[in-house]
Specification:
By secondary structure, this protein is an all-alpha fold. 65% of the residues lie in helices and 0% in strands. The chain has 8 helices and no strands.
Length: 147
């Protein structure tokens, strides 16, 4: 597979196909959200994307329902809405679809997950390293005393 096949270039005229991918399994949702993100990263496309209610509804629905299942999917969608948020005229879109609240839920969850991961790693680290005040036991056998 060539690099171009693995990373197709998004075309605004195919937006309906990308939205349809958001109704499939996670890999297809990731692909669709990635293509939509490509379009959203170009400021010239934002007006057209903002007019597409099916697109915005599908993105917000997928983010609301699937964000725990794939960090890549949620990142693509949050980044897409971030592209809208950088322009004042698109702030009503962010408010209408409650993206701020969804983002806070994602951030809160990921921070908790990070804390759990960190505790788990620190717990394993303590198991693997002996206490500083303990000397490691010698593997050399002790001499036998004659009685």
């Amino acid at each position: 597979m060539s690099p171009l096949e693995s990373n197709p270039v998004a075309v605004l005229n195919h937006i309906d196909e990308y939205v349809e991918l958001l109704y499939d399994d996670i890999p297809e949702k990731i692909k669709g959200s990635s293509l939509i993100l490509q379009l959203a990263r170009n400021p010239d496309n934002l007006i057209e994307l903002a007019r597409n209610e099916a697109l915005l509804s599908a993105l917000s629905r997928v983010l609301r329902e699937e964000w725990k299942r794939s960090i890549e999917l949620s990142t693509n969608i949050v980044y897409t809405f971030f592209c809208f948020s950088t322009y004042l005229e698109f702030h009503p879109v962010i408010i209408q679809y409650k993206i701020g609240s969804l983002c806070m839920d994602v951030i809160d969850y990921e921070l908790k997950r990070y804390d759990q991961w960190k505790e788990k790693v620190e717990g394993k680290k303590q198991v693997l390293t002996p206490e500083k005040n303990e000397l490691p036991k010698s593997r050399i056998p002790e001499p036998k005393t004659s009685s």
